[in-house]
Amino acid sequence: MHWRFSYRRYRLPFRRPLRTAHGEWREREGVYVRLEDAAGMARYGEAAPIPWFGTETADEIEAACRGLGPNLDGEAIAKLPPGLGRLRSALASALAERAAVPRTAVLPIAALLPAGRAALAAAAAPLEAGFRVFKWKVGVTDVADELVILDDLCAVLPASAKLRLDANGAWDRRSAERWLTRCADRPVEFVEQPIAPGARGADDLLLGLAADYPTALALDESLVGDGDIERWLGLGWPGVFIVKPALLADLPAAVARLAAARSSVVFSAALETALGAQTALRAAFLWTGEPRASGFGVWPMFVDSRFDGPAAVPFLRWEEVERIDPEALWNALS
Ligand code: MG
Fold first, then answer.
1. What confidence score (pLDDT) does residue 334 get?
2. Who surrounds ion ligand 1 at CB < 5 A?
3. Residue 268 Cα, ligand 1 centroid: separation in angstroms?
4. Which of these, 104, 58, 17, 109, lies nearest to 246 by C-alpha position?
5. Which CATH number is 2-95 given?
6. Cα–Cα distance for residue pair 284/291, rounded to 1 Å
7. How many whole angstroms from 330 Cα to the centroid of ligand 1?
8. CATH 3.30.390.10 region(s) of the chain?
9. Of 69, 108, 206, 261, whose CA is between 20 and 30 Å from 287?
10. If you measure from the C-alpha of residue 153 to the centroid of ligand 1, how many angstroms do you get, rounded to a whole number?
11. 135 is catalytic
12. Is 313 left (phi over 0), alpha (psi -120 to 50) or beta?
């Protein structure tokens, strides 16, 4: 197969800068790709890298696209270096067969709570809206202070609610042990990335904590690409895999491996635009394993709302996802 290939770079400011372990993140950068077949049929994909997560940069993706030239075949795609996983992901999603999802299918979504004491007041609106799974960012202030807020938060949430904690790799062993001791008899669904992937002995420490405490642990920052999922499956990771489809070069293969291993999976946004969100959400809707609320409650997020994925609701209908028009998004970048 041969395709006419084109690409467009985007740089989209966030409504509010995001606080990350690597400082403020103000704008989303990425690249849209377009592949047109001999019949004139065009397909689109989004490369949404997160360089501070360990992926290639938007500059590197743009340079690779320039190098590919205006005519593309499967061989040229296969020859792309493995480090360009997010570009591979975009091309693969443009070319993928699209499995049908029933229009009325629904996907539960987790509500995001801000860090610190602000989480208490912020929980009221999503509770009222019907959200039952909440994610709270921890590891931001003093451990003792946050443990007090944890109890206040547990008191605010009804018994039917589930609370996820996301440490974004902020803890050392001692802090993690303190937290996990406290979580043992609290309604905490899981704790995301207690230890940074780059910390000394991180893999052993994560496996040890997962074995020693009853609360499930989830890997997020530890999973930058397909190889990491393979590696953690090999290590027998007993916890949850946070899967960001935008980061995976071969999404169908990774999902099949996780399903075969009967892994616990939570699908999540990589703060991509609606184009990539459609691909990521399709994978979440099609997941046949244990259903868990997904991490797609991030939009609206961009100053230019045309690029936002579906707005956060407790139960997202496929109808809302199907409505996303890749061609309109491509044209919006011209
Ligand atoms: Mg996370």
1. 87
2. 166, 192, 220
3. 9
4. 58
5. 3.30.390.10
6. 9
7. 29
8. 2-95
9. 206
10. 19
11. no
12. beta
Q: Give residue-wise pLDDT tens across range 15-51.
A: 999 877 678 899 999 999 999 999 999 999 999 999 9
Query: Ligand 1 centroid to 155 CA: how many Å?
Result: 24
Q: Does 137 participate in catalysis according to the annotation?
A: yes
What is the rounded average pLDDT of the residues 207-235?
97
CATH number assigned to the domain with residue range 106-332, chosen from the 4 options 1.20.1290.10, 1.20.1540.10, 3.20.20.120, 2.40.160.50 = 3.20.20.120
pLDDT, tens digit, 9 for 90 and up, residues 258-272: 999 999 999 999 999
CA 294 / ligand 1 centre spacing (Å): 12
Segments of the chain assigned E as strands: 2-20, 23-36, 42-47, 71-73, 106-108, 111-113, 133-137, 162-166, 188-192, 216-219, 240-243, 264-267, 315-317
Cα(270) to centroid of ligand 1, in Å?
10
